[in-house]
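Write out this protein's structure.
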Amino acid sequence: MTLPSNTMQHSSPHASAADEHIAPAPRISIQAFCETVETAAAIQGASEDRRLAKTHVNIQMGGIAAALEVFQTTATSNVIIIETQRDSRDLLSGLDSLAEVCDADTKVLVIGGLNDVILYRELLRRGISEYVIAPVGAMDVVRLVCGLFSSPSAKPVGRVIAIVGAKGGVGASTIAHNVAWSTAQDLKLGTVIADLDLGFGTAGLDFNQDPAQGIADAVFSPDRIDSGFVDRLTTKCTDHLSLLAAPATLDRVYDFNPDAFDSIFDTLRAAVPCIFLDVPHQWTGWTKRALIAADDILVVSGPDLANLRNVKNLLDLLKVSRPNDRRPHYCLNQVGVPKRPEISTDDFTKTLETAPVAVIPFEPQVFGTAANNGQMIAEYSSNHRTGEAFRRIAQLLVGRSEIKKAQIGMFQPLIQKLLNRKA
Protein backbone atom coordinates (compact mmCIF):
# COMPACT_ATOMS: atom_id res chain seq x y z
CA MET A 1 0.00 0.00 0.00
CA THR A 2 1.17 3.53 -0.75
CA LEU A 3 0.33 6.87 0.71
CA PRO A 4 -2.53 8.75 -0.97
CA SER A 5 -1.40 11.58 -3.18
CA ASN A 6 -2.71 14.30 -0.87
CA THR A 7 -0.04 13.44 1.68
CA MET A 8 2.64 14.24 -0.84
CA GLN A 9 3.86 17.76 -0.07
CA HIS A 10 5.54 18.55 -3.38
CA SER A 11 4.70 21.76 -5.24
CA SER A 12 6.28 24.64 -7.05
CA PRO A 13 7.47 27.24 -4.50
CA HIS A 14 6.60 30.26 -6.63
CA ALA A 15 3.21 28.93 -7.70
CA SER A 16 2.23 28.10 -4.13
CA ALA A 17 3.27 31.51 -2.87
CA ALA A 18 1.02 33.19 -5.41
CA ASP A 19 -1.95 30.87 -4.88
CA GLU A 20 -1.82 30.05 -1.16
CA HIS A 21 -2.30 32.14 1.93
CA ILE A 22 -0.15 30.55 4.65
CA ALA A 23 -0.41 31.78 8.23
CA PRO A 24 2.97 32.76 9.72
CA ALA A 25 4.41 30.52 12.43
CA PRO A 26 4.60 31.85 16.00
CA ARG A 27 7.82 32.48 17.93
CA ILE A 28 9.13 28.90 18.27
CA SER A 29 12.38 26.96 18.13
CA ILE A 30 13.00 24.33 15.44
CA GLN A 31 15.80 21.78 15.33
CA ALA A 32 16.35 19.79 12.17
CA PHE A 33 18.47 16.66 11.83
CA CYS A 34 19.13 15.84 8.19
CA GLU A 35 20.75 13.01 6.30
CA THR A 36 21.06 14.72 2.91
CA VAL A 37 22.39 18.12 1.90
CA GLU A 38 19.31 18.64 -0.29
CA THR A 39 16.93 18.47 2.66
CA ALA A 40 19.24 20.62 4.77
CA ALA A 41 19.25 23.23 1.97
CA ALA A 42 15.44 23.13 1.77
CA ILE A 43 15.10 23.71 5.52
CA GLN A 44 17.67 26.51 5.37
CA GLY A 45 15.66 28.13 2.56
CA ALA A 46 12.48 27.78 4.59
CA SER A 47 14.12 29.45 7.60
CA GLU A 48 14.70 32.53 5.45
CA ASP A 49 11.05 32.79 4.42
CA ARG A 50 9.05 35.65 5.98
CA ARG A 51 6.49 33.23 7.42
CA LEU A 52 9.17 31.71 9.64
CA ALA A 53 10.72 35.07 10.55
CA LYS A 54 9.90 34.66 14.24
CA THR A 55 11.27 31.14 14.52
CA HIS A 56 14.77 30.09 15.55
CA VAL A 57 16.00 27.28 13.29
CA ASN A 58 19.04 25.10 13.91
CA ILE A 59 20.12 22.53 11.30
CA GLN A 60 22.63 19.74 11.67
CA MET A 61 23.39 16.48 9.91
CA GLY A 62 23.03 12.98 11.32
CA GLY A 63 19.32 12.11 11.33
CA ILE A 64 17.80 10.26 14.29
CA ALA A 65 21.17 9.28 15.76
CA ALA A 66 22.26 12.92 16.01
CA ALA A 67 18.91 13.91 17.54
CA LEU A 68 19.25 11.22 20.22
CA GLU A 69 22.73 12.42 21.10
CA VAL A 70 21.72 16.09 21.31
CA PHE A 71 18.60 15.59 23.42
CA GLN A 72 20.35 13.41 25.97
CA THR A 73 21.78 16.60 27.45
CA THR A 74 19.65 19.49 26.15
CA ALA A 75 15.97 20.40 26.28
CA THR A 76 13.92 19.63 23.20
CA SER A 77 12.73 22.41 20.93
CA ASN A 78 9.12 23.18 20.02
CA VAL A 79 9.50 21.40 16.67
CA ILE A 80 11.90 18.63 15.64
CA ILE A 81 12.39 17.76 11.98
CA ILE A 82 13.94 14.34 11.36
CA GLU A 83 15.12 13.11 7.98
CA THR A 84 15.69 9.38 7.78
CA GLN A 85 16.31 6.75 5.13
CA ARG A 86 15.79 3.85 7.56
CA ASP A 87 13.38 0.98 6.89
CA SER A 88 10.10 0.81 8.81
CA ARG A 89 11.37 -1.26 11.74
CA ASP A 90 14.49 0.84 12.33
CA LEU A 91 12.54 4.06 11.88
CA LEU A 92 9.93 3.13 14.48
CA SER A 93 12.61 1.88 16.88
CA GLY A 94 14.60 5.09 16.52
CA LEU A 95 11.53 7.26 17.07
CA ASP A 96 10.60 5.25 20.16
CA SER A 97 14.05 5.98 21.57
CA LEU A 98 13.66 9.64 20.67
CA ALA A 99 10.31 9.79 22.46
CA GLU A 100 12.04 8.83 25.70
CA VAL A 101 14.15 12.02 25.68
CA CYS A 102 11.63 14.44 24.15
CA ASP A 103 9.11 16.63 25.94
CA ALA A 104 5.53 15.44 25.57
CA ASP A 105 4.40 18.60 23.76
CA THR A 106 7.21 18.61 21.18
CA LYS A 107 5.96 18.37 17.62
CA VAL A 108 7.90 15.99 15.36
CA LEU A 109 7.99 16.08 11.56
CA VAL A 110 9.55 13.11 9.76
CA ILE A 111 10.89 13.24 6.22
CA GLY A 112 11.42 9.72 4.90
CA GLY A 113 11.80 7.68 1.77
CA LEU A 114 9.13 5.02 2.32
CA ASN A 115 5.80 5.50 0.56
CA ASP A 116 3.76 3.23 2.83
CA VAL A 117 0.34 4.11 4.24
CA ILE A 118 0.62 1.48 7.00
CA LEU A 119 3.81 3.15 8.22
CA TYR A 120 2.14 6.56 7.93
CA ARG A 121 -0.77 5.47 10.14
CA GLU A 122 1.57 3.90 12.68
CA LEU A 123 3.62 7.09 12.90
CA LEU A 124 0.50 9.18 13.49
CA ARG A 125 -0.68 6.68 16.11
CA ARG A 126 2.61 7.17 17.95
CA GLY A 127 2.16 10.92 18.03
CA ILE A 128 4.27 12.01 15.06
CA SER A 129 2.79 15.28 13.79
CA GLU A 130 3.41 14.64 10.09
CA TYR A 131 5.27 12.29 7.76
CA VAL A 132 6.23 13.37 4.24
CA ILE A 133 8.20 11.74 1.50
CA ALA A 134 11.49 13.17 0.27
CA PRO A 135 12.45 15.23 -1.62
CA VAL A 136 10.96 18.39 -0.13
CA GLY A 137 11.38 22.03 -1.11
CA ALA A 138 11.61 25.16 1.02
CA MET A 139 7.92 25.99 0.65
CA ASP A 140 6.98 22.42 1.58
CA VAL A 141 8.80 22.92 4.87
CA VAL A 142 7.18 26.33 5.40
CA ARG A 143 3.74 24.86 4.76
CA LEU A 144 4.36 21.93 7.11
CA VAL A 145 5.71 24.00 10.02
CA CYS A 146 3.06 26.71 9.73
CA GLY A 147 0.36 24.06 9.41
CA LEU A 148 1.30 22.64 12.81
CA PHE A 149 0.09 25.84 14.45
CA SER A 150 -3.02 26.45 12.33
CA SER A 151 -6.05 24.63 13.64
CA PRO A 152 -8.31 23.27 10.87
CA SER A 153 -11.29 24.73 12.74
CA ALA A 154 -9.71 28.15 13.17
CA LYS A 155 -10.94 31.16 11.26
CA PRO A 156 -8.92 32.09 8.16
CA VAL A 157 -5.95 34.28 8.98
CA GLY A 158 -6.24 37.86 7.79
CA ARG A 159 -4.32 39.08 4.77
CA VAL A 160 -1.86 41.92 5.41
CA ILE A 161 -1.36 44.33 2.50
CA ALA A 162 1.31 47.03 2.73
CA ILE A 163 1.12 50.17 0.60
CA VAL A 164 4.12 52.49 0.51
CA GLY A 165 5.27 55.45 -1.57
CA ALA A 166 8.48 55.26 -3.57
CA LYS A 167 8.98 58.90 -2.64
CA GLY A 168 7.32 61.37 -0.30
CA GLY A 169 4.30 63.18 -1.70
CA VAL A 170 3.31 60.66 -4.38
CA GLY A 171 -0.13 60.04 -2.87
CA ALA A 172 0.49 56.59 -1.38
CA SER A 173 -1.77 57.26 1.60
CA THR A 174 -4.60 58.45 -0.64
CA ILE A 175 -4.36 55.28 -2.71
CA ALA A 176 -4.09 53.07 0.40
CA HIS A 177 -7.24 54.60 1.87
CA ASN A 178 -9.23 54.39 -1.37
CA VAL A 179 -8.21 50.78 -2.07
CA ALA A 180 -9.03 49.75 1.51
CA TRP A 181 -12.40 51.53 1.30
CA SER A 182 -13.16 49.72 -1.95
CA THR A 183 -12.21 46.38 -0.39
CA ALA A 184 -14.72 47.00 2.39
CA GLN A 185 -17.45 48.67 0.35
CA ASP A 186 -17.35 46.75 -2.94
CA LEU A 187 -15.96 43.36 -1.90
CA LYS A 188 -17.79 43.35 1.46
CA LEU A 189 -14.72 42.15 3.32
CA GLY A 190 -13.98 43.17 6.89
CA THR A 191 -11.09 45.63 6.58
CA VAL A 192 -8.85 47.61 8.91
CA ILE A 193 -6.57 50.46 7.87
CA ALA A 194 -3.54 50.86 10.12
CA ASP A 195 -2.00 54.31 9.68
CA LEU A 196 1.66 53.77 10.52
CA ASP A 197 2.71 57.39 9.94
CA LEU A 198 2.28 58.26 13.61
CA GLY A 199 3.59 61.81 13.32
CA PHE A 200 1.92 62.95 10.11
CA GLY A 201 -0.75 60.37 9.22
CA THR A 202 -3.81 61.48 7.24
CA ALA A 203 -6.18 58.52 7.56
CA GLY A 204 -8.24 60.27 10.23
CA LEU A 205 -8.64 63.33 8.01
CA ASP A 206 -9.41 61.31 4.88
CA PHE A 207 -12.21 59.44 6.65
CA ASN A 208 -13.44 62.49 8.56
CA GLN A 209 -12.63 60.87 11.91
CA ASP A 210 -10.96 62.26 15.01
CA PRO A 211 -10.62 59.31 17.39
CA ALA A 212 -9.24 59.84 20.86
CA GLN A 213 -7.23 56.62 20.64
CA GLY A 214 -5.46 54.74 17.88
CA ILE A 215 -2.46 52.69 16.89
CA ALA A 216 -0.02 54.70 19.04
CA ASP A 217 -1.83 53.54 22.18
CA ALA A 218 -1.20 49.96 21.10
CA VAL A 219 2.45 50.28 20.12
CA PHE A 220 3.29 52.11 23.35
CA SER A 221 1.44 49.50 25.47
CA PRO A 222 2.80 46.17 24.19
CA ASP A 223 1.90 44.31 27.39
CA ARG A 224 -1.80 45.15 26.96
CA ILE A 225 -2.19 44.02 23.36
CA ASP A 226 -4.95 41.48 22.80
CA SER A 227 -7.98 41.35 20.55
CA GLY A 228 -10.19 43.25 22.98
CA PHE A 229 -7.69 46.05 23.51
CA VAL A 230 -7.02 46.51 19.79
CA ASP A 231 -10.74 46.42 19.06
CA ARG A 232 -11.31 49.27 21.51
CA LEU A 233 -8.69 51.35 19.72
CA THR A 234 -10.26 51.00 16.28
CA THR A 235 -12.77 53.46 14.92
CA LYS A 236 -15.62 52.19 12.79
CA CYS A 237 -15.94 54.07 9.50
CA THR A 238 -18.47 51.86 7.64
CA ASP A 239 -20.10 48.48 8.21
CA HIS A 240 -16.99 46.69 6.94
CA LEU A 241 -14.24 49.26 7.46
CA SER A 242 -12.43 50.26 10.63
CA LEU A 243 -9.48 52.55 11.27
CA LEU A 244 -6.46 52.39 13.52
CA ALA A 245 -5.63 56.06 13.29
CA ALA A 246 -2.32 57.77 13.87
CA PRO A 247 -2.23 60.56 16.47
CA ALA A 248 -0.58 62.91 13.94
CA THR A 249 1.01 64.89 16.75
CA LEU A 250 4.64 65.66 17.48
CA ASP A 251 4.66 65.42 21.25
CA ARG A 252 6.61 62.14 21.03
CA VAL A 253 9.46 60.78 18.96
CA TYR A 254 8.30 57.68 17.12
CA ASP A 255 11.40 55.50 17.15
CA PHE A 256 10.68 51.79 17.44
CA ASN A 257 12.41 48.44 17.50
CA PRO A 258 11.98 46.41 14.30
CA ASP A 259 9.45 44.07 15.94
CA ALA A 260 7.43 46.79 17.70
CA PHE A 261 4.33 46.27 15.56
CA ASP A 262 4.45 42.47 15.36
CA SER A 263 1.95 41.74 18.12
CA ILE A 264 -0.48 44.33 16.73
CA PHE A 265 -0.37 42.79 13.26
CA ASP A 266 -0.72 39.26 14.70
CA THR A 267 -3.78 40.33 16.68
CA LEU A 268 -5.35 41.93 13.62
CA ARG A 269 -4.62 38.85 11.49
CA ALA A 270 -6.60 36.70 13.91
CA ALA A 271 -9.67 38.93 13.76
CA VAL A 272 -9.92 40.73 10.40
CA PRO A 273 -9.88 39.34 6.83
CA CYS A 274 -7.99 42.31 5.32
CA ILE A 275 -5.45 44.59 6.99
CA PHE A 276 -4.08 47.51 4.98
CA LEU A 277 -0.86 49.06 6.26
CA ASP A 278 -0.35 52.68 5.25
CA VAL A 279 3.45 52.60 5.51
CA PRO A 280 5.21 55.99 5.70
CA HIS A 281 8.02 56.84 3.31
CA GLN A 282 10.96 56.24 5.63
CA TRP A 283 13.55 53.49 5.83
CA THR A 284 13.79 52.06 9.33
CA GLY A 285 14.01 48.59 10.79
CA TRP A 286 10.29 48.43 11.50
CA THR A 287 9.12 49.77 8.11
CA LYS A 288 11.39 47.29 6.34
CA ARG A 289 10.06 44.47 8.53
CA ALA A 290 6.43 45.51 7.89
CA LEU A 291 6.99 45.38 4.13
CA ILE A 292 8.84 42.07 4.11
CA ALA A 293 6.26 40.41 6.38
CA ALA A 294 3.21 41.56 4.39
CA ASP A 295 1.28 39.10 2.23
CA ASP A 296 1.14 41.57 -0.65
CA ILE A 297 2.76 44.92 -1.39
CA LEU A 298 1.85 47.89 -3.56
CA VAL A 299 4.47 50.57 -4.24
CA VAL A 300 3.08 53.92 -5.36
CA SER A 301 5.29 55.91 -7.71
CA GLY A 302 5.31 59.24 -9.46
CA PRO A 303 6.45 59.39 -13.12
CA ASP A 304 9.97 60.77 -12.59
CA LEU A 305 13.52 59.48 -12.40
CA ALA A 306 13.88 59.50 -8.60
CA ASN A 307 10.68 57.48 -8.24
CA LEU A 308 11.81 55.02 -10.91
CA ARG A 309 15.10 54.48 -9.10
CA ASN A 310 13.38 54.03 -5.75
CA VAL A 311 10.79 51.59 -7.12
CA LYS A 312 13.54 49.50 -8.68
CA ASN A 313 15.53 49.48 -5.44
CA LEU A 314 12.45 48.45 -3.45
CA LEU A 315 11.42 45.71 -5.87
CA ASP A 316 14.95 44.34 -6.03
CA LEU A 317 15.32 44.25 -2.24
CA LEU A 318 11.91 42.70 -1.67
CA LYS A 319 12.56 40.06 -4.33
CA VAL A 320 15.68 38.95 -2.44
CA SER A 321 14.00 39.21 0.97
CA ARG A 322 10.82 37.38 -0.13
CA PRO A 323 12.09 34.62 -2.45
CA ASN A 324 8.96 32.49 -2.12
CA ASP A 325 6.42 35.28 -2.70
CA ARG A 326 5.15 36.84 -5.86
CA ARG A 327 6.70 40.13 -6.87
CA PRO A 328 5.27 43.30 -5.31
CA HIS A 329 3.03 45.43 -7.49
CA TYR A 330 3.48 49.08 -8.33
CA CYS A 331 1.26 51.80 -9.75
CA LEU A 332 1.90 55.21 -11.26
CA ASN A 333 0.10 58.15 -9.68
CA GLN A 334 -0.32 61.84 -10.51
CA VAL A 335 0.46 61.27 -14.19
CA GLY A 336 0.00 64.16 -16.59
CA VAL A 337 0.91 67.26 -14.57
CA PRO A 338 0.82 70.14 -17.08
CA LYS A 339 4.23 71.22 -18.41
CA ARG A 340 6.08 68.71 -16.19
CA PRO A 341 8.56 66.39 -17.95
CA GLU A 342 7.65 62.80 -17.12
CA ILE A 343 9.07 59.34 -17.69
CA SER A 344 6.64 57.30 -19.78
CA THR A 345 4.79 54.20 -18.66
CA ASP A 346 6.65 52.22 -21.33
CA ASP A 347 10.00 53.26 -19.86
CA PHE A 348 8.85 52.17 -16.39
CA THR A 349 7.71 48.85 -17.80
CA LYS A 350 10.98 48.23 -19.66
CA THR A 351 13.18 49.18 -16.72
CA LEU A 352 11.21 47.24 -14.11
CA GLU A 353 10.33 44.37 -16.47
CA THR A 354 6.69 44.51 -15.40
CA ALA A 355 3.79 46.86 -16.08
CA PRO A 356 2.13 49.00 -13.41
CA VAL A 357 -1.22 47.75 -12.16
CA ALA A 358 -2.71 51.20 -12.74
CA VAL A 359 -1.83 54.58 -14.20
CA ILE A 360 -3.75 57.21 -12.26
CA PRO A 361 -3.97 60.69 -13.82
CA PHE A 362 -3.28 63.99 -12.11
CA GLU A 363 -6.74 65.33 -11.22
CA PRO A 364 -6.31 67.89 -8.44
CA GLN A 365 -9.94 69.04 -8.51
CA VAL A 366 -11.36 65.58 -7.85
CA PHE A 367 -8.76 64.42 -5.34
CA GLY A 368 -8.54 67.76 -3.57
CA THR A 369 -12.28 68.13 -3.12
CA ALA A 370 -12.68 64.54 -1.91
CA ALA A 371 -9.86 65.00 0.62
CA ASN A 372 -11.28 68.27 1.94
CA ASN A 373 -14.70 66.62 2.31
CA GLY A 374 -13.28 63.59 4.14
CA GLN A 375 -14.49 61.34 1.32
CA MET A 376 -13.13 58.63 -0.93
CA ILE A 377 -13.13 59.16 -4.69
CA ALA A 378 -16.03 56.74 -5.22
CA GLU A 379 -18.05 58.57 -2.56
CA TYR A 380 -17.42 61.95 -4.17
CA SER A 381 -18.10 60.67 -7.69
CA SER A 382 -19.48 57.14 -7.90
CA ASN A 383 -18.88 56.79 -11.64
CA HIS A 384 -15.41 58.29 -11.78
CA ARG A 385 -12.96 56.07 -13.64
CA THR A 386 -10.36 56.34 -10.86
CA GLY A 387 -12.84 54.72 -8.48
CA GLU A 388 -13.00 51.76 -10.86
CA ALA A 389 -9.19 51.57 -10.87
CA PHE A 390 -9.20 51.38 -7.07
CA ARG A 391 -11.77 48.57 -7.18
CA ARG A 392 -9.60 46.56 -9.53
CA ILE A 393 -6.48 47.12 -7.45
CA ALA A 394 -8.44 45.93 -4.40
CA GLN A 395 -9.52 42.76 -6.22
CA LEU A 396 -5.94 42.05 -7.22
CA LEU A 397 -4.44 42.63 -3.77
CA VAL A 398 -6.96 40.51 -1.86
CA GLY A 399 -6.73 37.63 -4.34
CA ARG A 400 -10.19 37.87 -5.84
CA SER A 401 -10.29 36.23 -9.29
CA GLU A 402 -13.87 37.07 -10.24
CA ILE A 403 -12.95 40.28 -12.04
CA LYS A 404 -15.76 41.98 -13.92
CA LYS A 405 -14.73 43.61 -17.16
CA ALA A 406 -15.31 47.33 -17.44
CA GLN A 407 -14.19 50.10 -19.71
CA ILE A 408 -12.07 52.45 -17.66
CA GLY A 409 -10.08 54.29 -20.27
CA MET A 410 -6.35 54.36 -19.76
CA PHE A 411 -6.49 51.96 -16.79
CA GLN A 412 -8.00 49.02 -18.66
CA PRO A 413 -5.11 47.67 -20.77
CA LEU A 414 -2.51 47.67 -17.99
CA ILE A 415 -4.69 46.38 -15.18
CA GLN A 416 -6.46 43.74 -17.29
CA LYS A 417 -3.15 42.49 -18.67
CA LEU A 418 -1.84 41.88 -15.13
CA LEU A 419 -5.08 40.32 -13.91
CA ASN A 420 -5.21 37.98 -16.91
CA ARG A 421 -1.61 36.95 -16.24
CA LYS A 422 -2.44 36.19 -12.58
CA ALA A 423 -5.51 34.16 -13.54
